[in-house]
Design brief:
Elements lengths: L1 E4 L7 E2 H7 L8 E3 L6 H4 L8 H12 L6 H11 L5 E4 L4 E5 L9 H15 L4 E6 L2 H11 L5 E7 L4 E2 L13 E7 L2 H13 L1 H7 L1 E3 L5 H4 L2 H12 L6 E7 L4 H11 L6 E6 L4 H6 L25 H10 L1 H7 E5 L2 H15 L5 H17 L5 E7 L7 H8 L7 H4 L4 E2 L3 E4 L2 H9 L3
Parallel strand pairs: 5-14, 6-7, 6-10, 7-9, 9-16, 11-12, 11-14, 12-13
Antiparallel strand pairs: 1-2, 1-3, 4-5, 8-15
Helix pairs in contact: 3-4, 3-10, 4-5, 5-6, 10-11, 13-14, 15-16, 15-17
Amino acid sequence: MKFRSTKLKSPQVTFKEAVFRCLPSDGGLYVLDKVMDIRQLFLPMDEKTAFRELVAAAAPALLEGELDPVSASKAAASAYDFEPELIRLDEDFSLLNLYKGPTGGFKDFGIAFLSAMFEELMNDSAMILSAARADTGASMAHAFSGRKGVSLVLLYPSGQIRGLDPSAFAHNGGNIIPIQIKGTFDDCQRLIAETINDREFAERYNVTSANAINAGRLLPQVFYYLYAFTQIKNTLTGDLIFSVPSGNFGNLIAGLYAWKFGMPVNGFIAAMNANNAFGDYIRGKPFVPRPLVATNSPALDVSIPSNYERLASFYDEAPAVMHNMVHPASIGDEQTLKTMDSVWKKYGMHIDPHTAVAFAAAEKVIVANNWKGHAHTVVLATGHPAREANTVKEATGQTAAVPQPLLALQKRCDPIAVIPAQLEAFEGAIASCF
């Protein structure tokens, strides 16, 4: 499998090179140069197939020549002691629970596999940069803590840091370096891109990123789409639709790759909150970023999606097909709360606000397209409801039970440094840890 830049000015690279370089020198993002059809691999699988079994089979097929079956099985075992859970709610909806990992969020799946890949493919030390909110940071720290030869720099916007273990910090002999900036999440993503493109600094520390801009983080998210299909295919009647909470759009890109790899699916719903400027682009209009709006589904509060160029590459290749495959929908805060309450009352299940945005978007698009009775929609549940306990309480009047592994994630801790959102300050804070 070869990767190319979205700007087409850099040479093709292997998966390993895409993982460790992270960003092409021309300023684009790595995307697959040619898409492989692996349907003969997963179509025979069914609800009896374990997630690790699917990963161990799919990974070497996709990474032929770079990852053999033995290494793939080893990486799958190292990454996953958890798996997704598909719950069929009724004839119209299923939930794909992606919060079964150690930190209760969907990012555990991509990050866990990427961390295993670093150990499997690495010949030298590496420094991984990640723009992180509390949920992403905890997931990153859990996956990379103690990995040999790896240092993890977590860059947070202003606000609280929770769920990290200070004993794993660099100044305590560990390999985790949390740094807080006086700025926004978009500033964090900008600083990481600037640091990677500072070639002298990046080469000195072997810098890469574990955010969704890294193809090695994005690719394993394909696995849970394939897994969902294997779990539902024998009971599926009508079309198959996935409704995806969309902020940086990495999850949607992964679903589109699963489709390209041969997964039978009829469409995707790009579910957004008030930060919905990218919906205009999906509808065929120019993408014009808007000021960030704070909502009750904060993980979707992104004004400039980091995966913009990847999604644009799909549309550049086949705009008519993509306009029929991806259906954007925007959901406001009030409707988000109403949907959390209605799901609780109808199914006896709590969902977090990001999942509620996807559920409400699905209901909206189904009505608009007259799909009811003709399609089954799998809604991606991207976060454990206990992580948004206050919003769950506000919406339903009920208290979401907190699993024991998530209790530790509520503990606040301090970063190693608090800096302005400037490249020089960021690189200086990193260098001070070595």
